[in-house]
Amino acid sequence: MRALLALLVLATPSWALEVNQASAAELDGLRGVGPGLSTPMLEERAKAPFRDWADLMARIRGIGPGNAARFSAQGLRVNGQAYERPASPSSAAR
């Protein structure tokens, strides 16, 4: 049990970056994010804050489940929430 807890602590970023408050430089600091993603993120956020990961992915071309998981693993949060992949239908049926 202690080993599992230690792994969870090590796998969780020690800091979080809130997409609804981050600057372009902070967003660009994430691996895989550059001006091609940070600029549309800031433009869309100026229209309305992102409600959740689904909203972010729907409004920003280039952010799908894979990138969402990678960015979340680096500490990106939407309204304080980490990205969680939806359960696949095959695993839910078991």
How many helices? 6
Distance between the termini: 25 Å
Largest sheet: 2 strands, parallel
**Could you tell me the number of beta strands?**
2
Secondary-structure element order, as H and E?
HEHHHHEH
Question: What spatial form do the alpha-carbon principal axes imply?
Answer: globular
Low-pLDDT runs of 5+ residues are 4-12
Tally of separate domains: 1
Percentage of residues in helical conformation? 40-55%
Tell me the radius of gyration.
Answer: 15 Å
**Averaging pLDDT over every residue, what do you get?**
86
Binned strand content: under 5%
Strand order of the largest sheet: 1-2
Secondary-structure class: mainly alpha
Features:
single chain; 4% strand
Task: Explain what this protein looks like in three dimensions.
The structure is a single chain. The chain has 94 residues and is mainly alpha-helical. The protein has one domain. It has helices at residues 2-11, 24-28, 35-47, 53-59, 65-73, 89-92, and strands at 17-18, 76-77. A two-stranded parallel ribbon has the order 1-2. The longest helix has 13 residues, at 35-47. The chain is globular and about 40 Å long.
Short description:
By secondary structure, the chain is mostly helical. The protein is built from six helices and two strands.
